[in-house]
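User: My collaborator sent over this chain with a note saying "see what the structure looks like." That's all I know about it. Can you take a look?
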Amino acid sequence: MKIFVCLFFFAVIATTWVVSNGLKEKWRKFPAQCANETKISEESLDKVINPGPTDDVTLKAYTLCLFKKMEIVGEDGTFNKENFKNMLLDNGVSGEDAERLVKKCSVKKDRPEETAYDGFVCWSKNGTVV
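Assistant: Without extra context I'll predict from the sequence alone. Here is the result:
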């Protein structure tokens, strides 16, 4: 059951963002696709509800998978700041807060998985998660 809650959590975030981009149907598939691709466990997905520092490589790979499919993070782990900002704006974050979150949360790390996961943690701790 918890796995469905976590998948739903990411699906809500994604669906809200892509409605204006015309990708709603395609994006609904991303959480399940990434869960399948990364073979993430229910235990790992539970950490999505209250994200924080972790050594869980599967959770980080899952987050990277989602962010890549959303075109928020590129293959090399670099944030697409414009897409990240647009996602935040589409999720009801004010322009000023979106700018602040993009600046604070789009820090490139040594590994793409670290970049995506740390960006997600930063966003969830400092901003609004739908």
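A starting point for your reply to your collaborator: The first helix runs from residue 2 to 18.
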